[in-house]
Amino acid sequence: MAILMYAVSLGIFIMGYVSTGTNKNLLTIVAVLGILPASKRAVSVVMYARAGCCSDILKSRVEGLEGKIRMMYDLYLTAYDKNYQISCMVIRNRNVVAVSENPKTDLKKGENHIAERLACDGVKDVTVKLFGSNEVDKFVKRACELSGLEDETTDLNNKIANTVANVSL
Predict the structure, then answer these.
(1) DSSP E strands: which ranges in the chain?
(2) What are the tens digits of pLDDT across the range 58-79?
(3) Is there a single domain that holds both residue 80 and residue 158?
(4) pLDDT, tens digit, for every residue of 14-28?
(5) Domain count across the chain
(6) Which of 12, 54, 90, 120 is the most buried (most CB within 10 A)?
(7) What is the per-residue pLDDT for 167?
(8) Are residue 93 and residue 146 in the same domain, yes or no?
(9) How far apart (Å, rounded) are the C-alpha atoms in residues 15 and 154?
(10) 35/74 same-domain check
(11) Quick one: 36 exposed, middle or buried, by C-beta within 10 A (0-12, 13-18, 19+)?
């Protein structure tokens, strides 16, 4: 899609250049503005290529919880100084529990980043726990515990999920 967007912008630029004999015309401005969304898509492609995804092993261990609890997979949270790859996240009753299978993920900063983003969106008093790549068993156990609880905050869970999705690729 990004290549098509670049091609359209290039075509507009060439039409303007051919019709006026110079690049100083309105179609040049339109072509440059057309490159902006194409560039945004290209950056997203590069970021997706860098981001890891949830392993098949982890997915098979938690897929039985789908439908019982709010789950999100393959998140790549972006921050000013660092990015956080999250393989799987579950949300229930003011609890956000996630696991990163990337051993380089700074867990504490990741937890703080999620909590800060939620607070900025007006979601307070939420417990955020991010498990590391060597704590997958603990994550699965906690996710199973949360799925057994009665869901008292469905609207809040949706708001949390929307906030996380907005700061993720």
Answers:
(1) 70-78, 83-92, 95-99, 127-131
(2) 888 888 888 788 888 888 888 8
(3) yes
(4) 999 999 999 999 999
(5) 2
(6) 90
(7) 83
(8) yes
(9) 53
(10) no
(11) exposed
Q: Which two tokens stand for residue 108?
A: 């504490």
Pairing outcome for strands 83-92 and 95-99: antiparallel
pLDDT tens column, 110-154: 999 999 999 998 888 889 999 988 898 999 999 999 888 887 777
Residue that has been written with the tokens 């983003």 in this structure: 117
* Structural domain harbouring 40: 2-50
- Map residue 75 onto helix, strand or coil: strand
Helix and strand numbers (H, E) in the chain are 6, 4
Q: Quote the tokens at residue 124.
A: 């307070």
**Is 33 within 8 Å of 12 (Cβ atoms)?**
no
